[in-house]
Amino acid sequence: MTQERLAWDLEVNKGYLSRCERGLRLPSLSFLVAVAKRLRVEVRDLFIFPDQSALAGAMELVRKHGARFAARVVDQAKRKP
Question: At what angle do helices 3-10 and 29-39 cross, to 10 degrees?
Fold first, then answer.
């Protein structure tokens, strides 16, 4: 879903939604509930961020060695206890 579509569905300005996403505006709890409902997630899911270091490492592997190599490395890492 695009930011524009989400803003339209929530009846807010796209700029406001963008500023909330970037941490430049502090949305109300009721707004966060509406966002979560529209995205079909729990409100707490809006505050869980992926491990950026793992993502950056994976992207570096793809850049250097290609997607197949990166996929093998990720699969091997998942198998380790």
Answer: 120
